[in-house]
Amino acid sequence: ETGVTQTPRHLVMGMTNKKSLKCEQHLGHNAMYWYKQSAKKPLELMFVYNFKEQTENNSVPSRFSPECPNSSHLFLHLHTLQPEDSALYLCASSQANYGYTFGSGTRLTVV
Amino acid sequence: KQEVTQIPAALSVPEGENLVLNCSFTDSAIYNLQWFRQDPGKGLTSLLLIQSSQREQTSGRLNASLDKSSGRSTLYIAASQPGDSATYLCAVFRNTGNQFYFGTGTSLTVIP
Asked: Which of A45, A90, A97 lies at the smallest CB-CB distance from B44?
């Protein structure tokens, strides 16, 4: 374990379902991130939270809804997704600019 | 906007060889640069973090260098092993903004 825990590890959902991804860190970091990684594509930054406040929303569709109740927890709520949203979703945390720590990711498949 | 490029995109070497992976970035105003390893379907594992004031960092068989003025970093892997097979990503943290900018990665295969 890296210190950043993501659940679930795998998720299969239908296009009409609602599900949530969870990320938890107990490293004392002040920033948390959601990234999307699709096959053969570079990492895409989705959202950034700094001290629980959202500081970046990288033109992400509204069917993805982040939530950061405190500096240790980050959620990504999913609803009415499309098959092209199938990807590896990675959570990361950082303290100031001292590097990222990533979770193991959630492999999402939308059917 | 910061752009990060990694060359080559893929590399295949026989076991035991020393190799160099390259990373270049367009904006030299960076705080630090981080090298990661990613195994298929898994998250990213941090290998080395170089602060902007540093020239290199070493960990075991890995050595990463940073030349801010030319916008380049290299990751040197000594005596490669099949277990080194993975995708290697570099990421640059700018002086402004609160995010890393990632390269597209180098896929490394070490042949036994």
From this structure: A90
